[in-house]
Amino acid sequence: CVYKDGKSATAKVSEETLSDIQEYYYLRSSRGGANAKPTGFTVPSLEQAIEKCKGSIMLMLNNAWEYGDEVQSVIKKLEADDIVIIRGATDAEDIAAYIDRNGLPISHICGYFDGTMSSPIKKYVKSALSAGIKIVELSSHNSYSSVFNNSVLSKFKDNGRAFISTTSKELCGEREDIRVDWSDLAARGFSVIETNFPYELVKCIEELESYRATLSSLITKA
User: What residues are paired with 3 via a beta bridge?
Assistant: First the structure.
């Protein structure tokens, strides 16, 4: 954030009230950072951010699992269960308890497994999907990790979505955040991809779907 005069903000969030943050600070452009330009946008509350997204896009909340119950109460109040994804659930029992505690309808929950061995991954995927979620995030810095094997990714077929981030090479087996590697990951079975280049990824997906439809038509004719 920056102050109204454009100077970098120096206060800690814990030292401010929400009203002060929204009155005195402006967001930087894009993903922020010291070199990003100031904008004319103030800091929204979670409720304001969700309201802005309704009817337009989905909203993934990073690091939200720790505050899941409070976040879920805001989501339910706004009837936004269908557009919000809470990211970071690591334990299947916690997921089941969370769903039971908050009741249905409930926001989308993204599980996360931190490991590369095939058997533990498959066990977590099975237990997490059985607990009631539909998305599991996998990651590895090793390009030959079990994370990318069919034996793991086949567990998602007709059951849920495999999610991977290409925002850092360490998260996706040293792959780049580019078209050719998105296509490779999609071919392996990942159907949710986090990227620093959303417009380009959308165009890539549209073209892949077009090719798939054309191929299906040709196969039917043959």
Answer: 25
Dist CA 201 CA 104 (whole Å): 32
Structural contact between residues 85 and 107, judged by C-beta atoms closer than 8 angstroms: yes
pLDDT reading at 13 higher than 90 = no
- Residues 22-44 have pLDDT tens digits of 998 999 988 788 888 889 899 99
CA distances from 210 to 135, 176, 204, 207, 222 (A): 25, 24, 10, 5, 18
pLDDT at 123: 93
Cα separation, 1 vs 59, whole angstroms: 21
> Do 192 and 162 form a contact (C-beta atoms < 8 A)?
yes
The span from the first CA to the last CA of the chain, in angstroms, equals 59
Map tokens 């050719």 to a residue: 180
Residue count of the chain, please give it: 222
User: What pLDDT digit, counting tens, does each position of 152-168 carry?
Assistant: 999 999 999 999 999 99
